[in-house]
Amino acid sequence: MPLTAPALRDPAWWPRVFWSLAALALLWPLLVATEFKPWLLFEPATLAVAGRFAASFFPPALGAEFLVLVAREAWRTVAIATAGISLALLIAVPAALLAARALSVSALSGRMAALPFVLRQLLRWLLIVLRSVPELVWALVFVRVVGLGPTAGVLAIALTYGGMLGKVYGEILESGDAGATEALLRNGSTRLQAFSYALLPACAAELVSYTVYRWECAIRSSVVLGFVGAGGLGQQLDNSLKMFAGGEVATMLLVFVALVALADAVSARLRAALE
Question: What is the per-residue pLDDT for 7?
Answer without folding.
Answer: 55
